[in-house]
Amino acid sequence: MREFLEGSQAVTRVVKLCKPGVISAYPITPQTHIVEGLAQMVADGQLNSQFVNVESEHSAASVVLGAVATGVRAYTATSSQGLFYMGEVLFNIAGLRLPVMLTCANRAISAPINIWNDQQDSVSMRDCGFIQFYAEDIQEVVDLHLIGYRVAEDKSVMLPVMVCMDGFILTHGIETIDMPQQEEVDKFLPPYSALYKLDPERPLTMGPLVDPEYYMEMRFAIQETHKEVIKLIPQITAQFFKVFGRQYHGLIEEYRTKDAQRVIVAMGSVCGTIKEVVDELRAKGKKVGLLKITTYRPFPHQEIYERLKNIPRVAVLDKALSLGSYAPLAVEVKAAFFGKKKQPQVISSFVAGLGGRDITKDSIKEIFRLLTAKERACEFIDLKPELLKETYE
Amino acid sequence: MKEIRIHARAGQGAITTAFLLGYAYFLKGMYPYAFPHFGAARMGAPMNAFVRVDSRPVRLRSQIYKPDYVVVVDPTLMRGVNCFLGLAEAGIAIVNGKQGIEVPKVKATQKVFLVPANDIALKTIGRPLGNTALLGAFACATNEFDLDILLEAIKKRFSGKAREANLQAVKQGFEFIKDKIKR
Fold first, then answer.
1. Chain B interface, Cβ < 8 Å to A
2. What's the structural domain count of chain B?
């Protein structure tokens, strides 16, 4: 049914449809409306779930870890510093093969403290073992939660999922959503059944000390599973299409790239803005396009290679940094051509939108303009050089 | 595509205003995207809410710099910032304020409507929250959607006493502009 919904509200509605047995979260801007909304649903008796109030994100992550370990579907959401505070538990959740769902309302990282949007938080957690999805609009946010639970809980996967939505732009944005119905969700997402669970009747230990004899194999197994996830995601999205009628590739999305000479690679809500600019420039005869990355972990190297190998000039747009090195997404796109003969003549890297700096159509046009024969690394867009000259007196 | 920029202070209901504007367009069958931008993230700090609307889903995610319409919820903001900055050639501004308050100069093609929205709100709602009166004025001044659609949006958003009071505020805001245009 078509509804006019705020992004956070849409998340609470889809989480409700997924019937988690346990929800635990600690409020942080801009994720707050999600946890407030779910707490309200539980308090009002609309959602039959145990809402566990905690004193920190570290505890919230620990609670959902424990809940899924007992064989119950669980959900949490956080943002920025909260995600970092969950950090060590996130590695444990993935390492213990527990299919937790986490919504990350993307926000900048301190210092300086900043509540606005970029993607430094989730991108910094790329190595923790979570599957990571980035949504372009609120509909995709909703749908990725359903797809996410299915992928996470697949017996061949058993790994946690993080659905990333740009803070404020999507969490506080309000737009027209086709909200799935309960019968459809029940058809698509069966109740969670664990491979192994903590049960006093049949005791077992999860997470014991693993010595050098076994540790590498445990980590190798997760790495191998991520390769399987790459194959599984398009299968799950095909099933999603059958039930809900909305089509996603799941790993990537191509927008007017077929005959393109210049393509921007990006993740999240900025892809909408890029599509607008692509259409404007196409109308003027410029052969430009967008390659949107939906799945950042596992990283779809092969798909990116196939889609970009014949594109002469590629720009990678990062909304995060890896301080002291090249921008994170740019490095990975470059790595997709590791050992390959065919590749773009130019793969340039641009950084924009840090800490909520608005990315306008002009910002995107500037990236296309700077996408010349000269390869650029970590070129900042919309930087104000005059501010760099300010001194503390 | 139409773009609307709302100027207010955090806590003055600008997000609800943007929601209601968007909701009216939604009920009309269009695709609105309503979103806030906070400044200092503190109650009382200047903030903006935006509505971008089109006949197909809106993809552009930037803030609004060249609005077709501007709504100023708190006229004291005009002391510090030019709320009409970037207003379109045929743009319309709806300002919460009494006749005679100082507003930036506009071109002959642009229009400014001053609406005593807080007075209307005090009479109808009992508190100086002029948002819904401004929405009524907006509907009349811009002709973007029928009054009935806006009233429908109010009915869906509010319940009980607040519903009745806000419906009255919308109608009075609408009538205020209607009288002005006649004269």
1. 15, 18-19, 22-23, 26, 31-38, 41, 57-63, 65
2. 1
Residues A196 and A162: their CA atoms lie apart, in Å, by 22
What's the whole-model pTM score? 0.97
The answer to whether domain A2-244 has CATH 3.40.50.970 is yes
pLDDT tens for residues A218-266? 999 999 999 999 999 999 999 999 999 999 999 999 999 999 999 999 9
Query: How long is chain A?
Result: 393
Which of A116, A166, A174, A246 to mutate against chain B (most B CBs within 10 Å)? A174
Q: Complex ipTM, two decimals?
A: 0.96
Range of the domain at B154: 2-182
- Interchain contact, B18 vs A174, CB within 8 Å: yes
Tell me which residue in B57, B60, B62 faces A176 most closely, judged by beta carbons.
B57
Q: Do B59 and A275 touch (CB under 8 A)?
A: yes
Q: A252-388: same fold as A2-244?
A: yes
